[in-house]
Amino acid sequence: MSEALAIAAPTAGKREPGRLWIVPPAALLALLFFYPLALIVRQAFLDDGGAANAAEIIRVLHSRFFLNALVNTVTISVAATAGCLIVGLVLALILAFVPFPGSGFIARLIDTFIALPTFLVTLAFTFLYGSAGMLNSGLMEVFSLPLPPVDFLYSTWGVVLAEVTVYTPFILRPLLAAFSLVDRGQIEAASVLGARPFRIVRQVILPAAVPALIAGGSLCLLLTVNEFGIVLFIGAKGVITLPLLIYGKAIQESAYQVACIIATINIALSLGLFGLYRFAAGRLGA
Question: What percentage of the chain reaches a pLDDT higher than 90?
Answer without folding.
Answer: 26
